[in-house]
Design goal:
291 residues, mainly alpha, MetI-like fold
């Protein structure tokens, strides 16, 4: 067989192999998208009809009484996630700055490794830890306990995304700043953080989205209440717990509550993720403009 014949056979095999790989890639893409579309579609079909002003502003009623709403769960989730963000964002951003700017420190290496381990912990384990430390100490389930549990979930995400974002800031900016006599801490605050602020915002939004959907830690820390939040040291309702508890109940009206809560939670998380995409897009647009 001639050399041209061998080359032609190789070329045909490569084209066939390339087409086969393309088919497999598209098949994998479809296989990944179908469950997402099915879940979101089912939530929209079942949950959207439940949404009205009374549903958003009313309180739960017994299953034998029609009407009512889930305002207590919406407010409880907002309060606990907000408190968790107040705890987690300063700690996570501070840790991420330390990991990024002082990587040569042994403490930084150990802390970064511990942060990665904490990020992989089952959230129910974190909830049980807060239950032992906070709930048993205060003798009550509470919004504070739930917020602490959610903050522990958020801290590793904020810390890691902060570290990775600040690592993308060119070292020449740091060197130029310190060459002008600006102290290192001012360089970090005014130059590094200012340049990488989009990445910091991305990490914060991702951590909030993760915390908003957590159920397991709240089961053993905040528990449930059908009343609005008037005391941070008392049991508090939340959307994830409402979806879990009402979804398993034998009452059809409570199933509607669960679907409506799931719809609100999905819309909230999709909104945060779209915000993250927009932030990342603007960030890279800015980088291209600078180049």
């Amino acid at each position: 067989m001639t050399t041209n014949g061998l080359s032609g056979n190789r070329g045909r095999r490569r084209r066939v192999f390339n087409r086969l790989m393309n088919v497999l890639i598209y098949a994998a893409l479809v296989a990944a998208i179908i469950p997402l579309v099915a879940i979101v579609g089912e939530v929209v079909i079942q949950g959207l009809p439940q949404i009205n002003l009374g549903f958003l502003t009313g309180l739960p009623r017994p299953p034998t009484i029609p009407g009512g709403g889930i305002f207590n769960a919406i407010e409880g989730s907002a309060v606990m996630v907000g408190l968790a963000a107040l705890i987690a964002v300063p700690l996570g951003v501070g840790a991420g700055i330390y990991f990024s700017e002082w990587p040569e420190s042994r403490l930084s290496f150990i802390s970064s490794f511990t942060n990665d381990v904490l990020a992989e912990f089952p959230t129910i384990t974190l909830g049980i830890f807060v239950y032992l430390v906070v709930v048993l100490t205060t003798h009550t389930f509470s919004a504070i306990a739930g917020a602490i549990a959610l903050s522990i979930v958020m801290i590793p995400i904020v810390a890691r995304t902060t570290e990775e974002s600040l690592k993308l800031v060119p070292h020449t900016l740091r060197e130029a700043s310190m060459a002008l006599g600006i102290p290192r801490w001012k360089t970090v605050i005014r130059i590094v953080i200012s340049t990488g602020k989009s990445g910091l915002a991305t990490g914060i939004l991702l951590s909030i989205a993760r915390a908003a959907g957590e159920t397991a830690p709240l089961v053993v820390t905040a528990l449930w209440s059908v009343y609005p939040v008037t005391n941070l040291w008392g049991p508090t309702g939340s959307l994830p717990y409402l979806i879990f508890y009402y979804g398993l109940s034998p009452y059809q009206i409570w199933h509607g509550y669960a679907w409506g809560g799931a719809f609100l939670l999905v819309v909230f998380m999709l909104g945060l993720n779209l915000s993250v995409k927009l932030l990342i897009g603007r960030r890279f647009a800015g980088v291209r403009a600078e180049i």
